[in-house]
Design goal:
Elements (H helix, E strand, L loop, with lengths): L2 H11 L15 H14 L10 E7 L4 H14 L16 E6 L10 H10 L21 H5 L4 H7 L3 E9 L3 H7 L22 H10 L5 E5 L24 H7 L3 E3 L2 H5 L7 E4 L18 H12 L6 E7 L2 H6 L3 H21 L5 E6 L3 E2 L1 E3 L39 E6 L22 H4 L7 E5 L5 E2 L3 E6 L8 E4 L2 H11 L2
Parallel strand pairs: 1-7, 1-8, 2-15, 3-4, 3-7, 4-6, 5-6, 11-12
Antiparallel strand pairs: 2-14, 8-14, 9-13, 10-11
Helix pairs in contact: 3-13, 4-7, 11-13
The protein binds zinc ion.
Cofactor: Mg(2+); Zn(2+)
Family: Belongs to the alkaline phosphatase family.
Protein name: Alkaline phosphatase
Length: about 500
């Protein structure tokens, strides 16, 4: 041992075990609240029991920044400044980060990311549960490179499987629970190439129902299930060329629901198909009372799943956070984010996390960001107020750019809200920044400032959070590949 090392060790040993300096701030609420958090975290013990049930909540495109905005939005609606509000998913004890890139995409789409959650491996953009040995857009790939899904595995264990989504049931995220498709757009047979060896996604859902793999499906997209020339109870036109899949499922004992009333009245001891609209369901901000909320669907789904004493796998998707972000319209992204949060809150009142693994995550993020030194209490969807020098709430003056104009708290890197768009939407890229009033900026239809002009704002490649409670949820820590989430679900249901 060197003299220097020996000196260091003896110096360390001489340190007192406890600091005795008086702490001036020890009675601050910030300080005592933080002490309470430490005490609460010390009491969290890993649960290593076998999980009877798994609920996977996925909000499509719910980047950490979108979840942040939803937090502030809900906190401000509740009358606070917003920042200290805690979303239901933020109360779950275990958090990790999910790396969402795919086998060929630095930036992913929802098909391979949902596949990663349901199969435990990464795959190529645009494909649903297809291994890289099969080509994108190839009719043969599903037969030769189709992957085994978590739903198939737990069905073999005697569990029920349910899907809830505010997007079309044939859209990428719900499709990844039951389908194998070399092209995510092959949602119904009108979109499938002629003589294709694989079936369309809607037809695969009926096959999965026949095989006992899917026991409940509630969401949008009735057009993929009804034939061309038939309109459903909501007046939505079907577009299938071959079969009436709704009549087929009804003939096999499935109940069919088409609005809030028929969904809440459904017999939860039998399989349920709910179809609410031709394409995606409405954004929460536009949802008529006759359409079920995500919370309504979650409640019916869990009641239905709980009828199986062997347990269940339920995937619940807030499908339209993604679409509102694509539209550059953060107000609808946060109102759908709120609907997603309320559905989680409902689910947590209905299940016991001693036996149910609950995971909340996103498939990928969006290029939404928050800049500008805004004061607390600034409306999250509106213009940025300056930080006040004293007190806790914002100043009454707007923060300004060098052009002397105010700016929105949130902005997108690209999309339809581009500041480069010319007068009255002209595509001449001569635009200048808008000067809205606070009232205009906080309107539900307002598009946040964006930079690069694109018709649809794009996904982001940045990691998304994983929040979890229940058996083996403690394994969902650290920065992990997205496909690891499947392996935690598998370990949870199959542990001895
Ligand atoms: Zn998207």
């Amino acid at each position: 041992m060197s003299v220097r090392l020996a000196t260091l060790i003896s110096a360390a040993l001489a340190l007192p075990a406890f600091a005795e300096v008086p702490i001036a701030q020890k009675d601050s609420k910030w300080y005592t609240d933080a002490e309470a958090v430490i005490a609460a975290r010390e009491a969290i013990a890993p649960n290593t029991k076998r999980a009877k049930n798994v609920i996977l909540f996925v909000a499509d495109g719910n980047s950490l920044s979108t979840q942040y905005a939803t937090r502030i939005w809900m906190g401000q609606k509740a009358g606070g400044l917003g920042d200290d509000f805690v979303l239901p998913q933020e109360k779950l004890p275990f958090v990790g980060l999910s790396k969402t890139y795919t086998s060929n995409g630095q930036t992913p789409d929802s098909a391979p990311t949902a596949s990663a959650l349901n199969t435990g491996i990464k795959s190529r953009n645009g494909t649903v549960n297809i291994d890289d040995a099969g080509d994108f857009d190839s009719c043969d790939a599903a037969a030769t490179a189709g992957l085994t899904t978590f739903a198939e595995i737990v069905t073999d264990m005697g569990k029920s499987v349910g899907i809830v989504s505010t997007a079309r049931l044939t859209h990428a995220t719900p499709a990844a629970v039951f389908a194998k498709s070399a092209q995510r757009d092959w949602e119904d047979d009108s979109e499938l190439p002629p003589d294709c060896a694989q079936k369309d996604i809607a037809a695969q859902m009926v096959d999965a129902a026949d095989a006992g793999i899917i026991d409940l499906a509630l969401g949008g997209g009735s057009r993929g299930f009804f034939p061309n020339g038939i309109t459903d109870e909501n007046g939505a036109a079907g577009r299938r060329l071959d079969r009436n899949l709704v009549e087929e499922l009804k003939a096999k004992g499935w109940q069919y629901a088409w609005n809030r009333e028929t969904t809440l009245a459904a017999d939860t001891t039998k399989p349920i198909l709910g179809l609410y609209g031709e394409s995606h369901m409405n954004y929460e901000a536009d949802r008529p009372e006759t359409e079920p909320s995500l919370t309504d669907l979650t409640e019916v789904a869990i009641k239905s799943m709980q009828g199986n004493e062997n347990g269940y796998y339920l995937m619940i998707e807030g499908g339209r956070v993604d679409h509102a972000n694509h539209a550059g319209n953060m107000a609808r992204a946060v109102t759908d984010g709120e609907a997603f949060a309320l559905a989680i809150e409902k689910a947590l009142t209905m299940v016991d996390t001693e036996e149910t693994l609950v995971i909340v995550t996103a498939d990928h993020g969006h290029g939404l960001e928050f800049n500008g030194y805004c004061g607390r209490g600034t409306p999250i969807t509106g213009l940025c107020y300056d930080v006040a020098d004293n007190g806790n709430e914002h100043a009454e003056t707007f923060a300004q750019g060098l052009d002397g104009k105010p700016f929105t708290v949130a902005g997108y890197m690209n999309g339809p809200g581009s500041v480069m768009v010319g007068e009255e939407g002209a595509n001449d890229w001569t635009g200048t920044r808008k000067v809205p009033t606070q009232e205009e900026a906080t309107h539900i239809d307002y598009l946040q400032d964006a930079l690069v002009p694109l018709p649809s704002e794009s996904h982001s490649a940045v990691d998304v959070p994983i929040m979890a409670a229940g058996p083996w949820a403690h394994l969902l820590g650290g920065v992990v590949e997205q496909n690891v989430i499947f392996h935690v679900m598998l370990k949870a249901v199959s542990t001895e």
